[in-house]
TrEMBL record, chain A:
Organism phylogeny: Bacteria, Bacillati, Bacillota, Bacillota incertae sedis, Caldicellulosiruptorales
Organism domain of life: Bacteria
Pfam families per the UniProt record, alphabetical: DUF4130 (PF13566)
Organism annotation: Caldicellulosiruptor naganoensis
Descriptive protein name: TIGR03915 family putative DNA repair protein
Limits of the DUF4130 domain: 86-245
TrEMBL record, chain B:
Domain spans labelled Helix-hairpin-helix DNA-binding motif class: 319-338
Protein name: DNA modification/repair radical SAM protein
S-adenosyl-L-methionine is among the record's keywords: yes
Keyword Iron: yes
Keywords assigned: Iron, Iron-sulfur, Metal-binding, S-adenosyl-L-methionine
PANTHER family associated with the record: ENDONUCLEASE/EXONUCLEASE/PHOSPHATASE FAMILY DOMAIN-CONTAINING PROTEIN 1, TYPE II SECRETION SYSTEM PROTEIN K
Any Pfam family: Radical_SAM
Species this chain originates from: Caldicellulosiruptor naganoensis
Superkingdom field: Bacteria
Record SMART domains: HhH1
Amino acid sequence: MYNVFLYDGTFDGLLTCIDEILSTHINEDEVVIVEKDKYQPMFFDKPIYVTLDKNRSQELRQKVINVSDKMIFKKIYYCFLSESQNKETYIYKYIKLVLKHGKKVKYLYHDDVVNFVEKASKNVSREIGKYMGLMRFNEIKGGVLYAQFEPTNDILVPISYFFRERLKSFKWIIHDKKRSKLSIYDTRMIKFLNGMNLNASFSDNENLYQKLWKLYFKTMAIEERKNLKLQRQNMPKKYWKYLIEKN
Amino acid sequence: MDILEKLQILGAAAKYDVSCASSGSKREVNYGIGSTFTAGICHSWTDDGRCISLLKILFTNECIFDCAYCINRKSNDIKRATFTPHEVAELTMNFYKRNYIEGLFLSSAIKNSPDWTMEMLYKTVYLLRHKYQFNGYIHVKAIPYASLDLIRKTGFLADRMSVNIELPSEKSLKLLCPNKTKESILKPMEFITRVGEEERNFVSAGQSTQMIIGATEDSDRKIITLSQHLYKKFKLKRVYYSAYTPVNDDPRILKVEKPPLLREHRLYQADWLIRVYNFTAEELFEKDENLDLEVDPKVMWALRHLDKFPVEVNKASYEELIRVPGIGIKSARRIIKNRVFHSLDFDDLKKIGVVLKRAKFFITCNGKTYERHLIDLQPEKIKLQLTEKAAAQQRMQQLSFFDKEIFTSVITGEI
C-alpha cells in the first residue's frame, strides 16, 4: 500500500510536501507524491494533502543548498519543470540522496533516481537554451514586444528571467500557449499570470522587419553547402511554428 | 535603393565569412539594451545547416581592391550597395529586440580608402553603443591599411575584432591579393593584440582571423603551423577555415569543383587539438604534408604511436587521457573525478560519455581490454575497422549520423 501525498502543483508546495514526508518515518518505497488536481483516488489509498508553507519550503531549499550546492538545487528545480512521469516521487528520493551524500550525489550515476533527475533536468535546460535563441518577439501596437511559444516543459519562468536581462528596457509579454500562461514585464518587474489568452495586432513596423528577416535568412544560405537534414537536427520542427523565417 | 535590396546585396556578400561566435565577452557595462551571454547563443539555422547568431553584413561591397577569390573585387560586374551607419544601427536594433540575433558582425569591402571605410565602421558602432545604448555582441573587421588610431577607437566599442589573414602563405597572398601585403594584415593584428593586453574593455572577446582553404596549393601542415603561430604570438581566440566556394573564374585559383568540406573539417579538428589538447603542429605532421581524410587527426596520431597505448583508464594522467581517441576534455575530467570514488569499467565509461567505438582500441580498464586481443591489432587493421564502419554507414544511407558527426563540429572542431 502506498502513502499518497498530494501537493498544490507549485514547486514550493512540493518542497513543503517533501519536508513533511522527511519528518515522518515512512518507508521510502511506499511513498508516492501526486499533484492534487491530477490525482485519481484508488480504493486502498490514504491520500494526505500537504498545504504550502513558504517557511518550510525555504528551509528545505536552504538545507539542500548547504549540504550540496546551488547547481544541484537547480537540477531539482529543472526536473520539476519537466513533464516526466512521477517526477515528484523521484525528486523526493533524490533530495534524500542529496541529504545523505551531499555533492557526491553526482557520482552515483548508476542510481536510477540520480539518472532520472539528471536526464529530466538536462532535457529542460536544453529546451531553455534553444528558446533563448529561437523565441521570436513581434512588436505589437503600443511598442510592446510579444512572443508566443509552446514548450514541451514548463519553462516560462526561467526563460522570462533570461529575457528580463536581455530586453531590460523594453516592455514585453511571453505567452505559453500550451499552458495558457503569460509573463508580463513592464521594464521593472515580471508578473506571471495563469489561464490567460491574448490577441494582439502588429505595429506599423512589424511587417517590414519580418520581411527583412525572412530575406536575410534566405540570403545567408550557401547553395553549395545545402544540408536540410543538418538544419533540422539543430532546429527541430517543433520550433518552426512561431519562427518567422520558417513560415 | 531601398533597405530590402541593400540587405540582400550586403548580406549575400558577407555569407562566406565564417565566424559566428558570440561568446566569451567580458565587457563591463550596466546600462542600456541587451547583454552578451558567455556561452553564445544561436538564433537560427540556414538551409545549409550553419547557425545564425549575428547579423552578418558588409557595410559596402564597393571595393578598390581586386582579390582573385573575392566576389566583390573591383573587376567584377555586380550590383553594388552601401549602407549608412544609421541604417545598420536600425537594422541591428530591430532584429535584436525581436530576438532574431545576438548582435552584429560588421565587415566591409574597401570603398574610397581604407580610412574612409574604417571610419564608417567606427561611426556605426559608435551610434549603436552610444545613441542606442546597445549592449549586445559586436564583431567588427579591422580594415588592412586603416590608421591604427581608428582601429583603436573601434576596439573599445567592439567585443571582437578580426583581420582576415586570407591565405596561409605570403606567396599565395601575392598571387591572389595584389593589393594586400603580409604587413598590411599582421600590423593591425599585432596592434590589436598589444592594446588588448594593455587596456581593459578593449576587444574583450578577443581577436580572430579567417583563411581560405583549397584556392591555393598550400598544405595542411603549412596551414596548421601558421595557426599555431597565430595562437602563440598574437594570442588569437580562433582561426577560422573556409573551404573555398568558387565564385570567380580566375586562372590564378586552383580549379575547385566543390568546396572541400571534409578537408575543412579535418583542419578544424587539428586546430582544436593544438588549441585545447596540447598537441603541436610538429606532432601532427611528422611525415605527411596533409591530414588523413579517412580518420580524424587524433586517431591518425594514435595509430602512429601505438607504443604509447593502451592507456589504463584508472591510472592515466589527464594529459594521457585526452590523447586517447574518443576521450575528450569533458570525459577526461569526469573520469578523473569519478575514479576517486570507484574504479571504472567499460560500462561506466559509456555512461560518462566516452566514444568506445574509437577508444576501445586504445584503453584498458583495470588491466582488461574491451574485447580479447583487441590491443594486438595492427594500425592498418584498426584504421580499416574505423573507416569501414563509417563507409558502411554511408552505404546504408544512415547519413544522418555520419553527417552530424562531420558537420556539427564544422564550427567547433571538437573531436
